[in-house]
Design goal:
180 residues, 6-stranded mixed beta sheet, binds 1-O-pyrophosphono-5-O-phosphono-alpha-D-ribofuranose, alpha/beta, Rossmann fold
Length: 180
């Protein structure tokens, strides 16, 4: 595809790391039930692969949050587009995210969820763009720390397209005009 500047993380690398994270999470939550809370839409691929490597009993729910619209940079405006379907009170909740960038989305979400009194609330992100962080976020599980480039694939979109690509690539700069 000519939109691919270069492949950043190959499919096999992603799958290997997801297996490792699944094993670690299974160990950490041994003897407990876990609610995986997937942030739509980007977290979907990661959730689907990760949950199959977790051996403790798992429930799944989704929350829709949008901070970007069609821009390539976080606006800081966070909007719940779809709320959870169940109460999280007394539950061990693990948030599943594709990427943390400024941290604004998760900062908002963590505050919003903490009020609902979960037994525990942790974060698992496949990608961490640490260099862009604007607010401090306690991230418990990280797949890969990534550079400040426009990343697409494996859940991450460019204008809502290419979430289905099984690897993560850097978008060719000729396809966007916004500053990173
Ligand atoms: C992306 C990503 C995170 C958020 C991270 O979602 O999935 O939720 O941005 O950015 P931040 O740390 O700067 O807040 P996006 O709003 O693009 O929605 P999508 O997952 O539906 O593509």
């Amino acid at each position: 595809m000519d939109i691919v500047k270069r492949v950043l993380i190959a499919e096999e690398e992603i799958q290997e790391r997801v297996r490792e994270l699944g094993a670690q999470i299974s160990k950490d939550y041994e003897g407990k039930e876990l609610l995986l809370l997937c942030i739509l839409k980007g977290g979907l691929m990661f959730l689907a692969d990760l949950c199959r490597h977790i051996t403790v009993p798992v429930a799944i729910d989704f929350i829709g949050i949008s901070s970007y619209g069609h821009a390539t940079r976080s606006s800081g405006v966070v909007r719940i587009t779809k709320d959870l379907e169940q109460s999280i009170e007394g539950k061990h909740v693990l948030i599943i995210e594709d990427i943390i960038d400024s941290g604004l989305t998760l900062s908002y979400l963590m505050n919003n969820l903490a009020i609902r009194k979960p037994a525990s609330l942790k974060i698992c992100t496949l990608l961490d763009k640490q260099v862009n962080r604007e607010v401090d976020i306690p991230v418990d599980y990280v797949g890969f720390t990534v550079p400040n480039e426009f990343l697409v694939g494996y859940g991450l979109d460019y204008c809502e397209l290419y979430r289905n690509i099984p690897y993560i690539f850097v978008l060719d700069p000729k396809y966007y005009t916004h500053d990173m």
